[in-house]
Amino acid sequence: MLFNSFFYMFAFLPLSVLGFFVLNKLHLTLFSRIWLVAASLFFYSWWNINYLPLLIGSILFNYSVLTLLSKESYSNTIVTRKRLMIFGIAVNVAFLGYFKYTNFFISTFNQVTNANIGLLSLIFPLGISFFTITQITFLVDCYEGLVKKTNLLNYSLFVTFFPHLIMGPILHHKDMMPQFDSLRAKVFNKQNLVRGLLLFTIGLIKKVGIADMFSSWADYGFDTASTLTLAGAWKTSLSYSLQLYFDFSGYTDMALGSSLMLNINLPINFNSPYKARNFIEFWQKWHISLTNFITTYLYSPILKYSKKITFRRAMLSTYIAMLIAGLWHGASLLYISFYLLTATGLVVNHTWRKRKRKMNGILATILTFNFVNIFLVLFRAKSYEAALKVLRGMAGLTGLGLESFRSDILQYGAIFIFLMVCFFSKNSMELSDIKTPSLKIVLISLCLLITSVIIMIEKNMASEFLYFNF
To answer: How do residues 175-228 score in pLDDT, each as one tens digit?
Structure first.
């Protein structure tokens, strides 16, 4: 189910919120949690009910492992507990790898050996990367003794909570479990409802009014045009950078807004990353929950197993962690290339810091954004040929294209305006940080909602979010 669909906005979300608070008002706390789990499973199966048994099976398996890890009989058996944890992680990785990478390995093997092995007809479960990572972190923390005992219902709610289920943010139990247990979360809060509505509508207009506009320009340049001039290539790359920015930040706003209406604060996952002055800061602001996961559960353990921690080994760990992140995004050498280039940027950034070099803040932001924009060409392109087509054009190797610049001046104007929005305006969290709901805020939210609905009616369809592919 898409956040930007009429059914979600005018049926599913209102009924989910209403049912939750009505049940709590009647002191049916247990049934209010069952209501949210049932709503979340319905939300997940809306796209394809064939995905549902896979999600339920994953939850039941991981909960069984967690139960064994929590048993007192295993409390003093370090070897047994470690084996249980490794087994649980291995099954989760195999589960993810089977659906995500089997056909990739078959096709790669066919190319290398000239074999003709047929690809498998696999369904790709929505959100598999996100709910698998969420459960892996829970397993690791349970092994480390950081998790309090929980029951199947609470665990299921933690994993399936619909605002985060498909595309994140990646949740951590210490941030969520206390909120689910909190008495304050069960009482209707007008302030949270209004803030959630404002945040949701800001995200909605970002998606349907801005990201989808840039989508058509980016798609033409990457997928349709045979060659691109300097002007056309920069329009293409910048359009995609803006599409991805407003698409992902729009989704994040809608997820956080939906959750806030239920009195649950999801972790901030997007914090004006194009304002970053270096690569380290960029990754601290872009997909924050994934960056935290990479740092805590990949980079740190890899570095920990080094006999002696040195700067070189820390930088090598960065490459390994980012390589795994590239594989997580999808079975594509382009994703791997993007993340290895990103790792190089991080290594250069750390080296620069180590030597205590400084740079003007404005220049640093411009350089960081331009490198990100160039790297994202690999992230978007469907083939190396398509990526090279755009990069050649950006380098001016296929002409300037001044005529197309003049004919498409409104498109270039839109790109400039929304780049300025990214660099200088307040972000959604700052705009929605209101202490007292007011009629003005309600009217702004309704205006944004009406505008978005008009745009959606004209399109006659709800477009998918980009991170659905992951």
So the answer is: 888 898 888 889 999 999 999 999 999 999 999 999 999 999 999 999 999 999
Provide the CB-side half-sphere exposure for 227 (13 A, CA): 10
pLDDT of 215-231, one tens digit each?
999 999 999 999 999 99
358 CB neighbour count, 10 Å cutoff: 8
164, 287, 329, 350: which is the annotated catalytic residue?
329
Stated pTM of the model: 0.90
Backbone angles phi, psi at 77, to 5 degrees: -105, 85
Q: What is the DSSP letter of 5?
A: S
Active site residue 329: yes
φ, ψ (nearest 5 deg) of residue 327: -65, -35
Number of H helices, E strands in the chain: 23, 0
- Which one-letter amino acid corresponds to residue 31? F
Q: State the amino acid at position 133 in one-letter form.
A: I
Single out the residue of 98, 245, 347, 467 nearest to residue 339, CA to CA.
347
137 touches 170 (CB < 8 A):
yes
